[in-house]
Fold each of these.
Amino acid sequence: MKFKKKMSVTLLLLATLGFFGAFLFLGRGLETKVSAETDGYKDLKIFSEVLSALKKSYVEPVDTKELVYGAVKGMLNTLDAHSAFMSPEVYKEMQVDTRGEFGGLGLQIGIRDKKLVVVAPIADTPAAKVGIKPGDVVLKVDDFVMTEETTLMDAVQKMRGRKGTAVTLTIYRESEPEELVFTLIRDVIRIKSVKSRLLEPGIGYIQLTQFQEHTARDLSTAIAKLMGADIHSLVLDLRNNPGGLLNSAKEVSEQFLENGQLIVSIKSRDGKEDEYIASRSSRLGRIPIIVLVNEGSASASEIVAGALQDWKRAVVVGTETFGKGSVQTILPLSDGSAIRLTTAKYYTPSGRSIQNTGIDPDIIVRPELPKEVKESPIVREKDLARHLSNETISEESDPADPEQTEGDDSDEPLPQAQNMSPEEDAQLKKAVDLLKGWRIFKEMDPEVVSAQKN
């Protein structure tokens, strides 16, 4: 396969995780603050007139900063689902998140049909322990009622807090006749982004739960440990990994690819293209690799899965991924606040955009659910309010068109719980069986293999 192999341009790419309680975003960090450029913005006069009228005539005193913040939030709310305003407090929390530690509940959430929906609880967090499930709709956080105007940032901010403090969530679950009320105690959520073990002699297993500052380093350690155990094949589990740092995605990918191979390209509105190239070669050689994905695999996860799939370095197994193919830039403002702005889309080495479509597995394997567990709707990028379109597919066939996709996701089962044994996890079992079969065929008599090909 002959993809591009250019030298990569060095840029200050700050991996921004957004919020672990929400979706995790790829981002390009800029250290320079935004400057005001008012030339040609005649409509700002209207804003000034409204602000002046409110300060002069509103029935109660108003806080100018709150009015401005509200206006900026509203402005960004007219854009795509991943562009948003961050107050100084929220921006500081986001910066903490890149280290993989924060105070909160451990929920991944998204907006669907103007409702706050749980994408997935993070394992071993307060949210997971009390039994909150994917597909649950959050109606209230304490006394704060979620409305159509509630943004993802607003919801995250309400759920965040100091360790040991309590928060009550009121939940609607389709399978329950009445609303559910959960009281959770906030904890320090430490995300261990790399987990590894031997599934059985010779078959290694690595699970990536987030893409953080130290993920690539921890992955390298895990690979070295497994290589020391003489593995002959590997399962890389990216299920329910909502993404994270762009640099981390690049550094993770190159641990499975060869030096000089294209990992991902980023294209902005003006047509400028940045390419991220593997700057090292994998220590794994050519051992067989299975990558597990599902609808919870998003953003940075899709970059890694797409790169390994395009270069035929791994077989991707599972279900269609989330479909977030956009890049967010963090723009700090003069008062310590910031805006997260969608500025580009990314493309796999073969040039495909996964926006709204996701990564299609090479082998589709759906998780098996106990009969008593009811299926819940699955939230993907195409279900989010104000999602971006995919310019590589026609509007008529765009899977993001709600008239064409209404009800499609409800036919999909819930994501399988992680850390199960292969016997309990249908997708993991399939991966192990494929790797065993791979090895059996490799060790067969070459003449027999040749006869089978013919």
Note: The radius of gyration is 23 Å.
Amino acid sequence: MAEALYLKGPVIHDFPYPPERRKCPHRALVSLTPAGSCPHLCPMCYARAYPWSQEEPAFYANTPAKLAGELERVEICPPLYISQVTDPLQPVPEIRELTAQVVEVAIRYGVAFHLITKSGEGVLWLLRRVPALLEYPRWWLSLTIEAPPEKQPITSPRASSVWERLRALERCAKAGIFVVVRTDPAIWGLVREEDEIWILDHAREAGARHIISALGHFNRLSFSRLLEALRAAGRKREAEEVARTYKREGEDAGFFRAASILHAPLALRQAFHRFMREEAEARGMTYAACLEMGREWDSPGIPHCEAAPMGRLARKGPSGQFELLPDCFGDCLRHCPDPQRPPCGRPELLRQYPYKLTSLLPQPSPFWP
């Protein structure tokens, strides 16, 4: 049974990255659990490698009530990113129910949101638990398929099988839900081009519209766990190749400047993302590189790296319901429809990375008629 905890600080918060390390748009991150509290036990998980991580199942029981209270107070709301450090649909009943309650709050207020999961069965459970999702137009789903079926037991040993994830993808796509497939981290040396092609083919066939990938980054603990998992699976040769591929280098790696981070060399990352974009676009899908490369590596015309057209900032109307702002995707560093008169009425969001919660509250603004 999962331990019930209580979140003390605000629920709504932004990615912590400053402008010079930023690719992500403004988002409203919603924490459901402590970092690492996830039974999937993916060996390369960054959240499990935090010094403050805990693996025992636990959840923040007051998140739905706190989120509702904050949505009552704010006037501007970026899309909710529900549970950024653990899978929101992991097979823990208390956490799944918590996710369902958070989703119900989001629907009640009319804000955009998205979920990232490796739990195909969990997605189908959520559709049964909250049937309004089948008609709600302001959410999208990201399913991670980081390896083909024969290699997935190494990379996500206790998550849903790849086939279960594809079944959930197909169910959502047929219902008209915007579905993204993430293949990150593509652990080079364990996976190769043919593995990525397998994923792309099956993602397209199941109805995915967009692909996100990256070769990934690791600290000492997550990388040692990954190598240990490869060796335990009898893949000594692959472990040696992965160890050779991911190393520290003196190059300017953008987001990856900390000496403690291991990542693939720049030339390999460039070749990988060029290949992935070409193959995704050839199959009628769009593509984006996650974090490790700039926007120039993404498909043209997508509004942000998640590509979902409903992933827009929302402004509260007189009824208390939020309405999505046209052409305002929270990627204020790169695209504001009108920097002189931002449609959100918050010019400070052009400069605040991360934003301050006070910037989302009602306030007099010369930019709002």
Note: Residues 93-109 form the longest helix (17 residues).
Amino acid sequence: MHKLFVTGTDTSVGKSWVASLILRQLRRDKLRTGAYKPVCSGVEFKADGTRVWPDVEALANAIDWTGEIEAVCPQRFAAPVVPNVAAGLEGRKVSDSLLRTGLRRWENIADYVVIEGAGGLLCPLSDRTSVADLAAALQTPLVIVAANRLGVINHTLLSVEVARSRGLKTAAVVLNCCNAPGDVIDPSLKTNQNQLQHWLPEVPIFECRHAAQQLIHQSTVDTVELLKLFGT
């Protein structure tokens, strides 16, 4: 089972969107694919009162998953704060063991699993485990998603440094366009990719443009190129 861990420079930078794009492309090419979010927080409610966690739903929909939602995310909490705090507000604790072992549900049914973290690499998942700790324990390469805007160079380089300090490989950086059509154009959008490639010459820098259906590198990314991110 090949694994890829999607993390971000911050919250709300498009991790779920990028993870879903990767999953959908793998599925289109008939690869056995799984999605795993070890823990999430921040519940929303449908019109009928049903509780839903949007990130988890996005991942499940990307692979047309109809099984138990626990396979995608075994630990879910209501409050829109970091998971260990959200768990505490419910009188519960995030299980460090389950963060790691929940992935086993995909053994024998998926050859490629995309894992989505919460927040950035130093975001706490439990009282003892950060996103970086979990990625190191799972021994998986990283895709770092960063919002393409002023400040992204510093945020991305800091994230890569954290990854290196934990012995983690950054397989790629994805610059995600968070601007809506009609927004004032940020001049840095024209130079951020080239600057990041200058400072990270060994790391592929992809783009995810507004309402993208696929990632973009020098050309549209084919599945062979995606599979390289998994270390295959």
Note: The mean pLDDT is 92.
Amino acid sequence: MQSRARWLLLAAVLVPGLVVGAMATALMTSSDAGPHAWAMETTLWLGVAAVLAVTFGLSLAAMRLWLIGPVERIARHMEELPLPPEPDALKRIEAALDWYRRQNARDRVLLAGQLGAVEALRDEADGARQQLQEADRLALVGRVAMGVSHELGGPLALLAGWLERLRTLEAENAPQEQRARCVREVEQAAQQIERLLTELARPGLQRTRDADRPCDLLAVVLRLQSQAEQHPRLKQMHLTVEASEPTHPADASASHVEQVLLNLVLNAADAMKRQGELAIHLRREGGWQTIDVDDAGPGVPEALRDQIFLPLFSTQPIADRPGQSGWGLGLAISRRTIASYGGSLSVADSPQGGARFRLRLPAAIR
């Protein structure tokens, strides 16, 4: 548009000048034309007037395109712009901005408080985590202590029973042979306690070959039968033993098998309220020696037969804590002990109406 206006202005300046110059030249050359001079002069001036009119029109057009048009467009654009707000509107806008500033300040204060609360919660969470870790360590120590207590409970009870028997024999001035037997039994119980403490003092180490391995399971069961009369929880129980062979050699430690059998017999006695008859059956099945411990108690529901071998699971009450459950470590420890010799420990229904705990161990090679 601006280039077109420039060309129009150039034409408005150059064309009239050229035309006027040409006409002036013609007038000067025709001054001696004679009677036609007046007519030619008049025509020349009329041409000049026409050229001036054309020049004026071109100038107007150029001004329209180059100057007036942009001014009009600017004016129309200014008309489309919104009017400046009135004083009341400015006050409302200022009040709104002030409210937003105050709200932003309050939000910053609130956010700072929330961040402080989050930091406090994080500190509390760290403290709680440390307490949980400490509780886990204490629980582990407590579980170890319960295991030690359970393992030592049987030998300690036998030791106390034989000491009580020894005091009775001393008071009755019984024969020396009877008192010597009590002393031997006390020594054996003390040795068993020492072995248990030694094994518990080195957890995770592979069990070395035991001094009393292999063993005769029948001899172990008969020894347990003789000790039952001195155990506080077995004095009113009648323990019978049946064996299919004169000896039942097994590749296992006699002291460990005795500990497992004592635990099974004590559990059976508790299930029978410490009164009644317990039966132990021994037999050989191929390369295995099998011991069944049968009781006439309530038995073990089939749904619980896998759970009773889990640590800390128990359904039996503690005698000196009515209404509370046992620690639930005896069967778990017993199964682990038998499994260390390649054997197994399971539970089923007993012909006596209660539970039958079956212990299987590899037969020793003679």
Note: Confidence is low (pLDDT under 50) at residues 319-325.
